[in-house]
Specification:
The structure holds two protein chains of two kinds. Chain A is mostly helical. Chain A is built from 19 helices and two strands. The model of chain A has no long low-confidence stretch (mean pLDDT 91). Chain B has seven helices and no strands. Chain B is elongated, with a radius of gyration of 43 Å. Classes of the chains: A mainly alpha, B mainly alpha.
Chain lengths: 505, 177
Amino acid sequence: MNADILSPYILTLVTFVPLAGALLLVVLPRRDRDIRIFSLVISLLTFVLSLHLPVYFHREHIPFHYEINRAWISSPNIHYHVGIDGISLWLIVLTTFLTPLCVLISWKSVQDRVKEFFILLLILETALIGVFVALDLFLFYFFWEATLIPMALLIGIFGHERKVYAAVKFFMYTMIASVFMLAAILWLYAHTGSFDFVDIRNQIRAGGIPNFPGAAIWLFLGFFIAFAVKVPLFPFHTWLPDAHVEAPTAGSVLLAGVLLKMGTYGMLRFNLGLFPDQSRHNAPWIIALALIGIIYGALVAMVQPNMKKLIAYSSVSHLGFVVLGIFSFTQAGLNGAVFVMLAHGVSTGALFILAGILHERRHTYEISEFGGLASPMPVYAASFLFIVLASVGLPLLNGFIGEFLVLNGAFEARAVYGVLAATGVIWSACYLLWMYQRVFYGKVTHAVNNTLPDLLGFEKAAVWPCAVAALVMGVAPIIWLAAIDPATQSALSPIMQMTAKVVGQ
Amino acid sequence: MLVPLLILALLSTVGGLVGIHNGFEHFLAPVFGPEFPESVTTGSSGTEFVLMGISLSFAFAGAILAYILYVSKPYLPERIAENLGGMYRAVFNKYYVDELYAKIFVRPLITGSTEILWQDIDRKVIDNTVNEAGDGARHVSDEVRHMQSGNLRSYAGWISAGAAILIAYMVWLGVGR
């Protein structure tokens, strides 16, 4: 059978299978075990379906592959327009890869309102995938905001002590920032008569939009502020540690693994795609913020007494690398940025899973509550070390490839960017290995820790796929970069042409 | 522990013997090719043996000293340590390099990150600004909501006040002139 016949519908399938699963869950009886198994099956099915995307992906489909473009609402002119390129391709697979792991890790830890939990998780998956496939700005905004609701509920209902505070803060902060993007989208619609990304981009390039030059900077900033808060770029990051510390493990995994990448994906797709001119003009201060984020995030991560907060601040640092790579406007930098997004999704997702496993046993994330765990939990300790090394950027593991490419691009753009960012690699070794030492090495300092059980079967099933992915991505990055490279090349070409024009004058 | 050491000792003997008469010199020549400049060899094989003898005699002297200090006269090290005093302690503590490093780099970095970056900048400045913005919005709304009292007469008052402002604005704009 030729599975390629699925190609015309595959994006719709991958996006909406989780939602269909969630709707079925609504009518399923409240038998917790069945609900868990059903959610696992649905999320695995989505993952298998999403593997169709890389398998049948052709680089020649420029600019977008698997496109579907149907009229949705005639007035205003909104289309169901979806399609992917090499950038969104792997972000979708990352989402569908992490969701089954989230189901597994919630198997035992979620005991109350099990049905609601998995319904929200599956709705969240649909919204996340929708963000990456949407090519209609209205559709994009729809999915973008749709991610907020299930995530805020996951934090607010299933979180820890200050869950409501964290949920409200997360919701309000990112929502208010997104409104600026909505204003920019509406301006574009008012002046182009279209919500279609490709259409608007062509009109902007042709230069026929009235008042565009004067408005461009505000439009750029409108999109940028929404993305910068989501990334989060320094100094818009304070919602993140709160949200992470309070969120249930599955929420943290998807928050760090995928939700943050919506911001950097948006910068790459919309800020660079629609406003190359403004992107270039504003790059210096954005890069400055990214560099501050890299170093500041790492230093603050280093002194966190709480394991989850430490990982949250480390995300600020790693995402700084992504923003730096994007605004370095070099091929290596952009490829590295996309690769760091994926690598960070896998390794930080795994770190949150591992932290959650410890929380299951001790109901705390405080580093000082642990120590010497390597003796009672050897398999857990080894798995943790593997992921820590991946996150630190050890060669042959995934963190190294992305960071190396970003640093390469940053050096190319300006040597001082590369030098400052390279210190981030050292800091990340500092905070992660120091944390590892305090948690796992030495003598067991709290007697309760002596009897902690090692990794259970379902926990291994959640952690080890991440470890395998980290290794494969580190050894054979070309599998990913082969699709990423042409996409970043076409994202970069208008900026290159502009630079050539400026230099030519 | 002894067996691995013996293996390593044997291997290092072989490794050293290979170097006699520059037997190893051209080993990497095929890798670097002819354009790699030839290293200049000075000194005869006589110098080679003299140097070998000196380093070997140092090694043997060390071994003999260790035998005296730790096997035949084990009371000696303690007495030497007592006589040397401060110098012994400095060497024992690796010249306090670790302590200096901790004092100059590690501790300032950690206290600086904790107190200035995390507590002051992150919590007191950035996060407080965010939370104050939220609280401010809530307080303003709290005041404004008193307008919606359900009291129709006050609504009528608000409507006429609004109308008055609107008319004043239109007059100022000069509508209908």
